[in-house]
Amino acid sequence: MTDIQAAFSDPQFVARYTEGPRRFVPGYDAMQSMASILLAESVPSDGQVLVLGAGGGLELKAFAQAHPGWRFDGVDPSGPMLALAGQTLGELAPRARFHQGYIDDAPEGPFDGATCLLTLHFVDVAERRRIASEVRRRLKPRAPFVVAHLSAPDGEKERPLWLARYSAFLAASGVEPEQAAAAQDAVSNHLQILAPAHDEVILREAGFSEPTLFYTGFAFRGWVAYA
């Protein structure tokens, strides 16, 4: 477990979590809105959606507010983050079931759609392939899978440039310069960042079709693909 992953069980980090994504992820709210729209193209009004990395509950709340008939299974390895998700959902919480653990702890489905937002950069390539395959197995035919995470070109000059741009975004968002530099270092040295083409290959190898880029925010990218 990395120091970043361990933070998700730290009470002080968890208490401040909901303030973070909008400052640390370019276009965070728009990305969530786009993910919701992409799901809704295929998920019926009474659909069941699998949400991996559901801790904190921000995307669950966004999806639940936009689609009153949807129900959710949220999976996350951190108990404190799942508790926070319940608090974030508030009166919407009865529409979600929470499962502490990883993809193997998710219900079998079949689901009408699935998301995995800001999570896959915490695991290595082999585990990404396995997660994608297990999600695919739990989806109905042609169901959408929406993913977004750190993904940047791996060229000797391109990768540092994109990470520097990300650090500049943090500073422009009000993050202290020292904290922005530390975040860039953590992203560069402790997370599993792949080139966008590699991310698309993993989705195809897992059995998904038509992986289509819908979101780019400096060092972050997002795709929709279909079971």
Automatic annotation (TrEMBL):
SUPFAM superfamilies in the record: S-adenosyl-L-methionine-dependent methyltransferases
GO biological process: methylation
GO molecular function: methyltransferase activity
Matches recorded under CDD domains: AdoMet_MTases (cd02440)
This protein's UniProt keywords: Methyltransferase, Transferase
Methyltransferase domain: residues covered: 49-141
Protein name: tRNA (Cmo5U34)-methyltransferase
Matching InterPro entries: Methyltransf_25, SAM-dependent_MTases_sf
Keyword Transferase attached: yes
